[in-house]
Amino acid sequence: MKKKKGSVGIVETKYVELVKDKKEYIKLDCGKDFGPITVAYETYGNLNREKTNAVLVCHALSGTAHAAGYHGNIGNNVGWWDEAIGPGKAIDTDKYFVVCSNVLGGCAGTTGPSSINPQTGKPYGASFPVITIGDMVKVQKLLIDYLGIPKLLGVIGGSMGGMQALEWALRYPDSVCSSIVIAAPARLSPQSIAFDAVGRNAIIRDENWNKGDYYGKSVPSVGLSIARMIGHITYLSDEAMHRKFGRRLQSKNQLGFDFSKEFQVESYLDYQGNKFVERFDANTYLYVTKAMDYFDVAMSYGEGNLEKAMERIKSRMLILSFTSDWLFPPYQSWEMVSALLKLKKDVSYFNIETDCGHDAFLLEIEKEEEIISSFLDATFSNMEKSR
Amino acid sequence: MKKKKGSVGIVETKYVELVKDKKEYIKLDCGKDFGPITVAYETYGNLNREKTNAVLVCHALSGTAHAAGYHGNIGNNVGWWDEAIGPGKAIDTDKYFVVCSNVLGGCAGTTGPSSINPQTGKPYGASFPVITIGDMVKVQKLLIDYLGIPKLLGVIGGSMGGMQALEWALRYPDSVCSSIVIAAPARLSPQSIAFDAVGRNAIIRDENWNKGDYYGKSVPSVGLSIARMIGHITYLSDEAMHRKFGRRLQSKNQLGFDFSKEFQVESYLDYQGNKFVERFDANTYLYVTKAMDYFDVAMSYGEGNLEKAMERIKSRMLILSFTSDWLFPPYQSWEMVSALLKLKKDVSYFNIETDCGHDAFLLEIEKEEEIISSFLDATFSNMEKSR
Fold first, then answer.
1. Is the pTM of this model over 0.90?
2. B308 CA to chain A: closest CA distance, Å?
3. What is the ipTM metric for this complex?
4. Which of B30, B201, B246 sits opposite A229 (nearest CB)?
5. Residue B244 is part of which domain span?
């Protein structure tokens, strides 16, 4: 009998200064020392006595530490992956202690370009150092150490979160039992870099960007909303767009012969663009997309050779891709799987049939659920046996 | 033996006022009467005595009347489809009289939003009427009448030019013997509308756009260049981007950890965006993309039913698509072919293998050449026989 699904209920974001003011620093991939660093995080479920049941959830570009449950009251402000995290869900909080933190460079509580630089008393803006996915993971490692977790049962994420999950397996092979890489590549393709570059261009060339110094003034909302609109096209698929919008008009029954947003798809994008501006920082968009563009584990760990890079992996690997994802297409996931298979690593791969495009990692929970929960359960059993 | 290829040599753009000032108008699809209309056009080769050898070439979004040969001196300013038009080429100017004109709404000689409105003495700007692909074709028909051509041997075009070629076959079934529709759909997909919408959004929200009234002032160069960058991504393919750029850096051997355009693909897009601003009018971009978004021949001629729309076609049809074209993908061409086949119309279809994406219609001339020249020759022979 399948277990009934529940909610983690009302949760709170916690904040911890992991790298202390003026005393400690972390060495970033760019070579600079950087600190202080505050991290925003949430946890769901309970850490067991042996500290062997911790799962780190990594968020995508626009995510936050608030992955599950509600803020304030039941029903309010639901976490971004609530469908996948909770009692009886893909990541079962009755079994596992789940941690999610906002990434370094983010704008939802963790230190980023909108944070105050203690040396100047003003927001960092464009003086924030250019960071990498590796740097984000270093900060997550500090959080996991702080929480007293010697080794993660699993790291899981989709899109940019999947890049972090892969980075964990490579950077800290002894600190993670399994890594679940969903809809993410081992290195960004030139097409993805191109989309990111246009989005950044729109922000940087927005007059309000003002070299990154716009806090407390007018924000570069035009540039950020255009970047988000481009993003949303890449998160969907041609098929999904046919299904969701077709050529349907928004409110009129006939063409308006004007430049209003008359097609439903136009109106959708416009809404998504404007909504994003209210909750996201344009500088974070720059830094986080740049971190993704730089992501290339073959280069970072294998001198350009993916197989060589993967040699260091010790964790079990689960790779998921989606048939209609054209942002990070299945062939990119297969590149990873293929390298891992050649190395006889413990890898499972599923290419999930869907028309939802890249967004599928957030939408096709039902299809992911059994794969993820079985994989985590098996990893947990293996680990218990080998103790 | 294959004929040696040559050039049409030095050519000139001609201008003709087809709809006269304050006396004549054409009825646009929006319902408005509009005039005067000047058309910029070029011709190559000679019209035969029987006037049966005329081929109309229709240009894509950013094209002009200058399709072949040189302006000024040999070697200068080569026409946009020079590789396909000339003695011994796909469209052989030793056999055919070739006509190409700038579209209505354009910015290269034909009346468009940057033209002077004689009623105000100022450029139309946003007061220019919203036009359709059908309106462009109506103006081309006036030009063909003016040139004394009773029936075209062929109409040919790629991308938006292909939409015009299809529109000709539907709007003027008795005035065209054959239509060659390259890399074009019977109706724009929501994904294509989405990309167009983001481009228009970038222009309209550029402060310099000023409700379309920017002539003689600062032009909305940021918006237009962003629109063009988005366009260029859609004209290429993932494969072509891997081949052309990969993850190669522009000038440095290592990552710069800054926001410069360090990847080659970033630098390419930036260059394309800036170059476009020098030669293209932002308002024309708005009008022409809107005309494409509105393009839906099933709706215009078949009450939403493509097969019903195609019933009126009397010309031979040649449909070409390219395997890696994801802007106007092969399945869209196949929709047309399938409808034509069901109606037992005279249709040929080739899905050309290439990694060049949508740009293939301009790049894969060698693969298109024999198909196009054989089709035109056969059409010409048929017509001669039936006379």
1. yes
2. 18
3. 0.95
4. B201
5. 195-287
